[in-house]
Amino acid sequence: MNTSNTVKTNKYSVLLVEDELLVQKIHYRFLEILDCAIVVAMDGEEALKKAKEESFDLIFMDVGLPLIGGVEVITMIRENEQINKINPVPIIVLTAYKEEKVFQDCLKAGANAVHLKPLNFEGFTDLINQYCK
C-alpha cells in the first residue's frame, strides 16, 4: 500500500483542437497514455481562447474547424505571442487534407509541422519527444 502523499503530475500540457469526436477520443487516449495533461477545444474560437488563457507545451491543431479555421487560429496565436513577447508554443497540424496548398498555408501561418490524419500512437510519441523537451 502506498502511503506517501505524492501527487502524480503530467509531463506535458497539450491543447488538442479537434472537432470530430471519434478522432478526438483516439488522440486524447494516445496523449493520456503519454502522460500528458490534455485540454480539448472543439472549434477555432474555443482554441484561440484557451491558447490565450493557458500555457501549453504543445498544440495539436485540426484545419477544418467550425467558427474559425485552423490556419486562422494559428496566425492569431502567433500574433498574440509576438505582441505579448511569449515564447512560441509548438503547433502541430493534424489534417485529412492532402493538398500541398493546405500544408503550405499551415506552415506559412506559423505551424511547426503538418501531418496527415490518422496519426498513430508511434507518431504521437515521436512528436511529443521531438517538441516537448
Please give a structural write-up.
With 133 residues, the chain is an alpha/beta fold. The chain has helices at residues 21-33, 44-53, 70-83, 100-109, 121-131, and strands at residues 12-17, 36-41, 58-61, 91-95, 113-116. The protein has a 5-stranded parallel beta sheet, with helices on both faces. Helix 2 runs parallel beside helix 3 (70-83). The longest helix has 14 residues, at 70-83. The radius of gyration is 15 Å and the shape is globular.
| Model regions low in confidence, pLDDT < 50 over at least 5 residues | 1-8
Which sheet architecture does the biggest sheet show? 5 strands, parallel
Topology, number of strands: 5
Radius of gyration: 15 Å
Helix/sheet category: alpha/beta
Helical run tally: 5
- Termini gap: 33 Å
Tell me the strand percentage band. 15-25%
Percent helix? 40-55%
Question: What is the average per-residue confidence, as pLDDT, rounded to a whole number?
Answer: 92
The neighbouring-strand order within the major sheet is 2-1-3-4-5
Provide the succession of SSEs.
EHEHEHEHEH
So what's the oligomer here? single chain
Q: What general form does the structure show? A: globular
Key phrases:
133 residues, five-stranded parallel beta sheet, 5 strands, alpha/beta, 44% helix, single chain
